[in-house]
Write a structure and sequence with these properties.
disordered C terminus, globular, about 20% strand, TIM Barrel, about 230 residues
Length: about 230
């Protein structure tokens, strides 16, 4: 079943509490937090104190995407702030297996994030400890970028690898997941959609209206039997 995760970096920063409450009621499945340190990516966003404060307003899953160097230094901080899922970039940590194990030991789901040009080979020796993989479909750092078409083949290859290994790993896609792109990524095997300005935080539309449209669109795709290709 496809799950929808609003990307809160695309929300109005002055209205995050209201945004969380409204999207919770509109049946968001999880909330996606992009954590950026200005080093691994050229931008700064969010932090554990913000997450800790927002945690009071919903019981939905909090998904922290750590786009930071040496993420192992901050895993415990984000877990204690209330995150249920934490993904780290394979490119950002020297000891990927150790970092993922650190996440798991805190009772949090562990994810590996990969930049568009990064190889799936990063996953070769961590299959047994990964709960989900975040495939970036744009280069991380800023909202509003163009979808990179070659990432579709990457989703397909990852889905095949997961099935061949007999894993129950979910595939999360992040980056310009628009109405045009959604059927394509689902066809290739995506399970979790990180939704930003392309389909959810749209000018001139209320959050409730946008979320209802998105649910209706996904329901229509489901009835049309979207299949892997």
């Amino acid at each position: 079943m496809t799950s929808i995760g609003p990307s809160l970096m695309c929300a109005n920063m002055g209205e995050l509490r209201d945004t969380i409450v409204r999207l919770d009621q509109a049946e968001a499945d999880f909330f996606h937090f992009d954590i950026m340190d200005g080093k691994f990516v050229p931008n700064f966003t969010m932090g554990p104190d913000m997450i800790r404060e927002l945690r009071h307003y919903t019981d939905k899953i909090f998904d922290a995407h750590l786009m930071i160097e040496e993420p192992e230094r901050y895993i415990k901080v984000f877990a204690e702030a209330g995150c249920d899922m934490i993904s780290v970039h394979a490119e950002s940590t020297i000891h990927l297996q150790r970092t993922l194990n650190q996440i798991k030991e805190l009772g949090v789901k562990a994810g590996v994030a990969l930049n568009p040009a990064s190889s799936l080979n990063h996953l070769d020796y961590v299959w047994d400890i990964v709960d989900y993989v975040v495939l970036m479909t744009v280069n991380p750092g800023f909202a509003g970028q163009k979808f990179i078409p070659l990432t579709l083949e990457k989703i397909k290859k990852l889905k095949k690898l997961i099935q061949e290994n007999g894993n129950s790993i979910e595939i999360q896609v992040d980056g310009n997941i628009s109405y045009e792109i959604i059927p394509q990524v689902l066809n290739k095997g995506a399970d979790m959609l990180v939704c930003g300005t392309s389909c959810l935080f749209r000018k001139g539309e209320s959050l409730e209206y946008s979320m209802a449209n998105l649910h209706s669109f996904l329901e229509g795709l489901s009835k049309g039997n979207v299949a892997n290709s």
